[in-house]
């Protein structure tokens, strides 16, 4: 009798608190797209790619200017009068610096960072633009730092400040994109315009989370297959996704304490993997020296790299890479900044911005310098022709396996990689689940987390599409393209949110003179 009563209470909680329109409409749209991708793979792929090419080619400058604008706005927020505003009424931050940095870093990056750290230099090595700038040695290690550096993190940081101000200073109860636009749009956010903003945001969130597994999961599957001599089948991939789902669902179920502990464990595994390559690979001097040179080249050429449009389309490098990355980070801005803003209670805006850059860039730069430069050292020193392996197989995963084959205790290294990837995915989806649960609620109290049943609903929902999509690689690529396309309207919403923040924060400072 008590069990039935609890189940009824949980159902009542779900139906009462969940905003079904904002949740189900985007989900149904994504599901319908998946069906179309499976039934009409060639036609849907051609159509989406044409739209993606149009946005990247014709409106590429929009994405580039968005990146520069986010960076400038975040620095202005930190070093202007707005920097002294404290996010909330706590005398000291809610979390320690290490806890906060760990949660922020792991929430902002899925296991994709490990995949790209190991192989991204290969993607640039054959690019004509790299040859035009200099040698592979000088530039193949620079662009990964650029594409995962200050501008991508600025998207997260400026929005985290805006959402943190909204949640902890103005104490608004609706944790939604539309609510962040209220200082500028007023009561319009309660009507069709606000509903459109929220539907666009949730659509982008679902598309982004559904496709985050498209690149890194095959690497995870291949690593476990080699360690345990298992066949690489869809069943293995599904089993991996189920394990990830179980880990992050358990952590989310226990609330922010569970999320914080899982984030700390993820960071520990991450640095253990970096130490394995730095100390065990025998290339530590090359790794460090090439990393220092890469940071120097990035610093000297940052403005030109951030503003280069390739107007003559001599290589279309910015269209193929820089604009692609900016768009993908913009899609992920739907959830991650909300999480960063929510855990930043007690910090000033200046501390949030500068701390965000410190922990974000420290993590990404260290990852790319150590993991990426180890593979580059094998290529440059002639110890392994990774580019030949990649050109012949057209498979980055095979090239990455070749990197591990050069390491001592390769199977142990692959197992460590797999554990770290699972931890990254779990911690990222922890944050996404917490935000999605709050985002889909009709309102949320500042001190109250969403109900456990709602968090469990999202924990399972966010994993269903990736499981369905692993059976069709074309569907994965197409849905990733949908994510990139979704970044275009998200860009305009980001502008509204940042504009609203500065307007509201200015009014707040005038009120407290």
TrEMBL record:
Annotated compartments: Cell membrane
Membrane topology field: Multi-pass membrane protein
Annotated InterPro entries: BCCT_transptr (IPR000060)
Transmembrane regions listed in the UniProt entry: 20-40, 60-79, 100-125, 145-167, 196-216, 236-255, 262-279, 323-341, 353-376, 414-441, 453-472, 484-502
Alphabetized Pfam families for the sequence: BCCT
Keywords: Cell membrane, Membrane, Transmembrane, Transmembrane helix, Transport
Entries under PANTHER family matching the protein: HIGH-AFFINITY CHOLINE TRANSPORT PROTEIN (PTHR30047:SF7), HIGH-AFFINITY CHOLINE TRANSPORT PROTEIN-RELATED (PTHR30047)
Family indicated by similarity: Belongs to the BCCT transporter (TC 2.A.15) family.
Protein name from the UniProt record: BCCT family transporter
Species name: Enterocloster alcoholdehydrogenati
């Amino acid at each position: 009798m008590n069990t039935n009563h609890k189940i009824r209470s949980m159902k009542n909680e779900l139906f009462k608190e969940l905003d079904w329109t904002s949740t189900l409409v985007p989900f149904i749209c994504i599901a319908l797209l998946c069906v179309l991708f499976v039934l009409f793979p060639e036609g849907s792929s051609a159509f989406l790619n044409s739209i993606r090419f149009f946005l990247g080619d014709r409106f590429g400058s929009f994405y580039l200017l968005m990146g520069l604008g986010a960076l400038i706005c975040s620095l202005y927020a930190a070093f202007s009068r707005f920097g002294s505003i404290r996010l909330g009424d706590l005398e000291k931050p809610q979390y320690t610096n290490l806890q906060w940095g760990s949660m922020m870093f792991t929430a902002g990056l899925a296991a994709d960072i490990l995949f790209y750290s190991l192989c991204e230099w290969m993607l640039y090595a054959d690019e004509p633009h790299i040859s035009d700038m200099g040698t592979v040695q000088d530039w193949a290690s620079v662009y990964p730092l650029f594409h995962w550096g200050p501008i991508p993190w600025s998207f997260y940081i400026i929005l985290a400040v805006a959402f943190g101000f909204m949640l902890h200073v103005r104490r608004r109860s609706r944790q939604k994109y539309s609510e962040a636009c209220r200082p500028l749009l007023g009561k319009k956010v309660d009507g069709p315009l606000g509903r459109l903003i929220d539907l666009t945001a949730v659509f982008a969130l679902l598309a982004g989370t559904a496709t985050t597994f498209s690149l890194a999961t095959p690497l995870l599957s291949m690593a476990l297959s080699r360690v345990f001599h298992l066949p690489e089948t869809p069943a293995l991939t599904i089993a991996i996704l189920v394990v990830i789902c179980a880990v992050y669902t358990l952590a989310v179920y226990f609330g922010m304490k569970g999320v914080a502990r899982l984030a700390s464990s993820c960071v520990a595994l991450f640095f253990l993997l970096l130490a394995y390559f730095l100390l065990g690979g025998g290339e530590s001097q090359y790794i460090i020296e090439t990393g220092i040179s890469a940071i120097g080249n990035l610093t000297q050429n940052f403005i030109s790299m951030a503003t280069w449009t390739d107007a003559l389309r001599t290589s279309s490098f910015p269209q193929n890479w820089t604009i692609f990355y900016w768009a993908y980070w913009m899609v992920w801005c739907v959830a991650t900044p909300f999480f960063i803003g929510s855990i930043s209670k007690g910090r000033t805006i200046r501390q949030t911005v500068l701390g965000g850059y410190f922990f974000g860039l420290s993590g990404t730069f260290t990852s790319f310098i150590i993991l990426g430069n180890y593979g580059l050292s094998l290529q440059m020193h002639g110890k392994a022709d990774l580019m030949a392996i990649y050109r012949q197989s057209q498979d980055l995963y095979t090239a990455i396996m070749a990197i591990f084959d050069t390491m001592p205790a390769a199977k142990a290294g692959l197992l460590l990689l797999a554990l770290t990837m699972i931890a990254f995915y779990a911690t990222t989806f922890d944050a996404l689940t917490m935000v999605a649960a709050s985002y889909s609620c009709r309102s949320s109290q500042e001190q109250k987390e969403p109900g456990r049943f709602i968090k469990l609903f999202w924990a399972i929902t966010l994993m269903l599409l990736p499981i369905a999509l692993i059976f069709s690689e074309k569907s994965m690529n197409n849905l990733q393209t949908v994510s990139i396309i979704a970044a275009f309207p998200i860009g305009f919403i980001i502008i509204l949110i940042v504009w609203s923040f500065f307007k509201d924060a200015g009014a707040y400072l005038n009120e407290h003179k």
